[in-house]
Amino acid sequence: MQTSSYRVPSQLIAKNPKLMIHSITSSRFSEYGRILNDVDVEALVALADQTISLPEAGTQYISSVEVFEQAEGSDAFVPYFGGMDYEIGHCSGKNSTINGMEYHKSPEIFVAVTDCLQFLTSYKSLEHFSKVGTSHAELFYFPKGSVTIINPLVLHLAPCSVHQEGFKSLIVLPRLTNEDLSEAELAAKNNAKDPESRLLLKKNKWIIAHPERTQLVGQGVPAGVAGENLFVAAM
In this structure, are residues 50 and 82 in contact, taking their beta carbons and an 8 Å threshold? Predict the structure, then answer.
C-alpha cells in the first residue's frame, strides 16, 4: 500500500533535538526487522483507522480483534508465521516515553495505522536478564501505512505518538501471545531456576520495566531498565 514519506518529518526532528530519529529505511533498522513492501493492507488499515477509538490518555492494547482477523487482507500475514495461527490486535493511544522493554520469541508484524515512533533495543543489551540501559535504545519512525516485521527477541514496548492526538497501530502475533498464564504455567515459572523466567509476565511476553513505570512494577515486572526514561515530543 502507499505510505506517506519514509523521511522523518523535519518538524519532528526540530521538536526532539536531543534524539536521533531513524527512518525504517535506514541500515540501522536491519538489525531489528525489515519492511514488508509487498503486503497489501490498505483495506485493513482503513478499517482500523475507522474502528479504533483513541483513549483520552494513556495507551490501550487488545491482543485479538475479530473484525480485523476476518477483514479483507487479514490473510496477508500467513507466510510470516510458518503456518501457525495468529492474532490481529491493536495498540493505540498517547505515549511519549520508553517506560520499559518487552520481547517475544516469535516475530511481530507492526502495521502503522497512523504515523508512529518505536524505541527498539537489541536483546544483546539485556544483561543477565536483570538490567538494560535506555542508552542502548534506538528510535525509529514508522510512517502511516508501513508494514514491518520485527525480529524475535527485539526489545520494544508501546509506540510513541508522532502527532498530538495520539497513535494507532495493528499488532500481529502468534495466537495466545499476551494471554494470561495458567496456574500450572505460573507455578512452572515461579519454580524455574532459569533467570529469564522472572521476566515472563504473560504467554510469549518477557518484560522489564523502567522504575518510573509504576503500573508495570506494581504487576511484579522487574524494574531493571536503567537510565533516563527517554521522552519524545509529538508534533
Answer: no
Contact 138, 121 (CB under 8 A): yes
* Per-residue model confidence as pLDDT tens digits over 174-200: 999 999 999 999 999 999 999 999 999
Q: Which helix (H) or strand (E) is 84 found in, with range?
A: none
The predicted model scores a pTM of: 0.96
- Per the listing, cell 492526538 goes with 165
Q: Which three cell numbers stand for residue 65?
A: 480483534
User: First and final CA of the chain: distance in angstroms?
Assistant: 25
DSSP annotation of 158: S
DSSP state of 71: S
DSSP structure string for 88-120: EEEEEE---B--EEEE-SS-EEEEESS-EEEEE
